[in-house]
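Homework help board

Subject: predicted structure for assignment chain

Our instructor gave us this sequence and asked us to write out the predicted structure in token form, then describe one feature. I got the tokens but I'm not sure how to describe them. Can anyone check?
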Amino acid sequence: MILRMLVPAFVSFIGLSWFIASVLLPKAPLGDPNGPMYYPLILSGFLFVMGVIYFIQELKVRHQEKGILKKLFAGRTPKLIIAALILSILYTLTFEKLGFLVSTIIFLGLLLFVINGFRGWKKWVTNIAVAVLFSFVLWYGFSQLLGIGLP
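My token output:
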């Protein structure tokens, strides 16, 4: 419908607005006089082009919109959405008390079990390994490599 066309039109408008604002940036007194506008021009041009492509794609599929909501709320999808929301709220509430590493391992583990299921030892091993390794890599990257303290 028409609402689906608003987002790509808005993205294109923002990209075009930023492009115009980038062109109007003052010239640099030292070095390349147009230096301050290169990066914003590239980003705003990219945003505008992506908005136009998105708009064209929405024009092509606008007649298929009727079945999308039915597919979204069919099967186990609503249960997965509700479970993810509940787990996210619990993660938020336990984050300060348990700390990043423990609460993230528990959150990811439970979320993976909800999505992948509990049957079979291979799923158990995979779910636990992914939760522990992903959490540890994130903790190590932020805490040790970047020096950003996590609770």
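Reply (TA_rk): Your tokens look well-formed. For the description, you could write something like this. The first helix runs from residue 2 to 23. That's the kind of observation they're looking for.
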